Amino acid sequence: MTLRSFIFAGQKRLEACLRDDASHVARGAGGEHVCLIQTALVHLDGADIDPAELNRGFYGPSTARAVLAFKTRRDIVNRSYQKRADDVVGKMTIAALDAEMLASQKPAPRAHRKAHGPARTSALSAEASVRRALDQMLASALAKLR
């Protein structure tokens, strides 16, 4: 199983999270993979993540709250050892984020597909979706700083 959404596809650190329990993403983590998770949370749920965490790509308290809210709304719980959702991005969570991001990638208009071909059009549509999410995240962060 691989990640298929434009934002997550090919991201080795997140692919590892999908396959390996030791690669789960939790508080204290940082890097591009955390930025991508934050972007998806803002895009999908309008998550309110602290601008300092966004700027650093840091998995801090507000990112943890956003992950917990995402998982709680969707009842993402590994019932083999949990009774309720936690704030860790594991196999089930990254799969759900990827599936929802993939579903949010809208196909481009028909005329655009003819000019650029279906594969290029799909990538362009997905990129536009991610850019919108990043723009929303940046606007939210700037509003909080004012």
TrEMBL record:
It comes from the Bacteria. InterPro entries: PGBD-like_sf, PGBDSf. This is Uncharacterized protein. It comes from Bosea lupini.
